[in-house]
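Table S2 (continued). Query chain:
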Amino acid sequence: MIRVVEASEVDDDLVAAFGRLVPQVSGSAPPPTAAELAEMVEAPGTRLLLAVDDAGTVVGTLTLVVFRIPTGVRAWIEDVVTDAAARRRGVAESLTRRACDIAAEAGARTVDLTSRPSREAANLLYAKLGFERRDTNVYRLTL
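Corresponding output:
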């Protein structure tokens, strides 16, 4: 069984979990350091969700950011990753559902995320959960 918890402290196990998980979602970004994880855990608008199996192993993660802008409260999901060894067990679905619940509790009316078209399973999951593809452009400036 998978349970979703929010990271409240950083220890060696959490650092190791991100060392294992981040390379599965990004080939170019290094895993966060203990200090960077602590910054996320301590940030008031950031919720670092962890999917934990019965053995206590972190098998997935999702970062939810909730923030206020002039037009309301917004929520954004980033870096959803499920360990390859735990796929097809509802990890990403459990993480995403919990993130949406937290966002709603915080007053967000919508939750946004992006997913590369090549991530077919992820895109099918988001559609299944009710996310709708938006007619918009996503822009990025590399600094």
